[in-house]
Amino acid sequence: MIKLVIFDADKTLWDHYNISEFQDPLTLAGRDVVVDSKGRTLSLFPNVRKTLEELRRRGVRLAMATWNFPHKTDKVLKALELYDYFDLIVSRDYPYKFVMISEIIREFRKRNLNLKPEEILFVDDRRAHFGNVWIYVGKVNCLEMWKDISDHLEIISKV
């Protein structure tokens, strides 16, 4: 049974490939669209909110593991009003998702929630991250966004 879903951010939750390049100030151009001072935009993919809401309703913990500067991730999540959906956000300036996922597991242990790798679902748009997750973390369930599934609502059926 899946107790935790960990999401990547760029090209998984929204259409931009690297929010670390966004420059302040960020403005909201619609409920699901953020624009930076240089005119760069990101749009939340369809059904992300519905999926996060349903997973929370079912009692599934939510976390994020993203290769971005932490302050940029926080600003975008807060602008989109998504920040509070996540129990943990690990945003780092390096691409090692297995390190981030290990950090998430350790942090949940500190909160008295011991998660086995097979109780975790990791959703990322790049399959390249999965190998090291399996080697260093264990049998984490992994879904490649846009290859294994084509809509965020499909995540609900995997939980």
Automatic annotation (TrEMBL):
It holds the Pfam family Acid_PPase. It comes from the Archaea. One of its GO terms (molecular function) is acid phosphatase activity. InterPro entries: HAD-like_sf, HAD_sf, HAD_SF_ppase_IIIC, MDP_1_eu_arc. PANTHER family: MAGNESIUM-DEPENDENT PHOSPHATASE 1, MAGNESIUM-DEPENDENT PHOSPHATASE 1 MDP1. This is Magnesium-dependent phosphatase-1.
